Amino acid sequence: xxxxxxxxPPSVPADFSTGLEWIVWPAAAAAPYxxxxxxxxxxxxxxxLYAVRVVxxxxxxxxxxxxxxxxxxxxxxxxxxxxxxGYLSAHMDKLPFLDPAxxxxxxxxxxxxxxxxxxxxxxxxxxxxxxxxxWTAGQxxxxxxxxxxxxxxxxxxxxxxxxxG
Length: 165
Known about the structure:
Oligomer: single chain
Strand order of the largest sheet: 1-2
Number of helices: 4
Shape: globular
Strand content: 5-15%
């Protein structure tokens, strides 16, 4: 029997990589990073269900997820990432690297899905995101993380933002 009001996971391709496939279950409660490792395992499983990918850019560990993800799942993802951050930072070399060009590609993909997301020019010529009014803090945080990673790559000709002011 199906749920009436449950969240239905989006269709995630079978070959989707969460970036956390390398994580193994914690062996014992005395193992280093025991709680953080469990959070990382939960984050990996959540990623497989809801297309959440964990990457690093420089020293930052980021969770990239579809902006249409339910606010409760965005908050849960954020809490798992916060709890797992120490363990993931200690194993940063195992996380996929997100380069600026790929961040721009993801931002463009999000902009195609959400017409309200735009970028404008700020002081000094830098680009700043303009978020849809209905977006949650988690949705904004994802684009902000991508924006930080993308940096000057947003100024390349292939990026389609808007220029106002």
